[in-house]
């Protein structure tokens, strides 16, 4: 579990985050949602240590992240997996080499152990047949799956996903959502997902945090979304007339 307490962040005189307190649970898909400029990306970067908060605390279990020294931070980051928005694969490496990269950088495994771990992760995301291909030779959805395999190759306790469905068609996005959710629950990982994808919210949102103007506007489970009367949530989720029509129909049939 990750706990944040009274997180605030200002850039010059602009207050981007204003006292955010929340818990991200183990074995759940913890979603951060909100309009552009709401503070989602800033909060995610604070969670992983890319931005230091102006005030507040980030706790990984019983460990206060921002009270750690460099050696302790490196040790904690060994337990963290990251799926980047653009996959961030190395073009000059094959799929297999991309997945192996964190093991070569941070692991003391033997070559044989690395081989088995890489094969296991590629098998988990159904990419064994593509292990010798380069990123330019595979689809966007496959690149996301490579990114997931690389993110879990060190058996992380924490997984962060930045807009995992960005640039994907709806069907492929659903496959990625399902894969992330299955891995989260199978491995009991604390997964935090920064997203604007409404399908992700409605399908896998176990613990949803809605940011609005730098503050928490709403929290809840995806099953609570339709029946919530929270104004900011309704405006964000049902901004599309089509989605609003589906919501109204669901309420009518309830």
Q: Give the second-level CATH assignment, the architecture of the largest domain.
A: 3-Layer(aba) Sandwich
Instruction: Please state roughly what percent of the residues sit in beta strands, choosing from under 5%, 5-15%, 15-25%, 25-35%, 35-45% or over 45%.
Output: 15-25%
Strand order of the largest sheet: 6-7-8-3-9-10
Oligomeric state as shown:
single chain
Shape: globular
What is the CATH class name of the largest domain?
Answer: Alpha Beta
Stated plainly, the CATH topology of the largest domain is called Rossmann fold
Question: Can you count the beta strands?
Answer: 10
CATH superfamily caption of the largest domain: P-loop containing nucleotide triphosphate hydrolases
On the 0 to 100 scale, the average pLDDT is: 91
Helix content: 40-55%
Supply database-style keywords:
globular; four-stranded antiparallel beta sheet; six-stranded mixed beta sheet; 2 domains; alpha/beta; 254 residues; 10 helices; Rossmann fold
Describe the structure.
The protein has 254 residues and is an alpha/beta fold. The strands form two sheets. The chain has a six-stranded mixed sheet with strand order 6-7-8-3-9-10. A four-stranded antiparallel sheet has the order 2-1-4-5, covered by helices on one side. 41% of the residues lie in helices and 24% in strands. It folds into two domains: 146 residues, Rossmann fold; 60 residues. It contains ten helices and ten strands.
Short description:
The chain is an alpha/beta fold.
How are the elements arranged and paired?
Elements: E1 2-11, E2 14-24, E3 29-33, H1 40-48, E4 55-60, E5 63-64, H2 70-77, E6 80-83, H3 95-106, H4 111-124, H5 140-152, E7 158-162, H6 170-187, E8 190-194, H7 198-204, E9 207-212, E10 215-220, H8 222-225, H9 231-237, H10 241-253
Parallel strand pairs: 3-8, 3-9, 6-7, 7-8
Antiparallel strand pairs: 1-2, 1-4, 4-5, 9-10
Helix pairs in contact: 3-4, 3-5, 4-5, 5-6, 6-7
């Amino acid at each position: 579990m990750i706990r944040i307490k009274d997180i605030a962040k200002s850039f010059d005189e602009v207050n981007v985050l204003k006292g955010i307190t929340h818990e991200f649970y183990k074995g759940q898909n913890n979603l951060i949602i909100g309009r552009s400029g709401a503070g989602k990306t800033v909060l995610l970067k604070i969670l992983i240590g890319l931005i230091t908060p102006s005030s507040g605390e980030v706790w990984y279990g019983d460990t206060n992240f921002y009270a750690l020294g460099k050696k302790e931070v490196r040790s904690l980051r060994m337990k963290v997996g990251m799926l980047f928005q653009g996959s961030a694969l190395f073009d000059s490496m094959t799929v297999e080499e991309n997945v192996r990269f964190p093991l070569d950088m941070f692991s003391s495994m033997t070559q044989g152990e690395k081989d088995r771990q890489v094969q296991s992760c590629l098998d988990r995301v159904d990419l064994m047949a593509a292990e010798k291909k380069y990123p330019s030779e595979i689809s966007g959805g496959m690149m996301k799956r490579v990114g997931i395999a690389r993110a879990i190759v060190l058996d992380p306790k924490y997984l962060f996903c930045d807009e995992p469905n960005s640039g994907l068609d709806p069907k492929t996005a659903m496959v990625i959502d399902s894969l992330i959710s299955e891995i989260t629950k199978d491995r009991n990982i604390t997964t935090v997902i920064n997203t604007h994808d409404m399908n992700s919210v409605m399908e896998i949102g176990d613990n949803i945090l809605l940011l609005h103007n730098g503050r928490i506007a709403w929290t809840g489970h995806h099953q609570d979304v339709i029946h919530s009367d929270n104004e900011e949530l309704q405006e964000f989720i049902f901004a599309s007339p089509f989605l609003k029509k589906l919501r109204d129909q669901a309420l009518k049939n309830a």
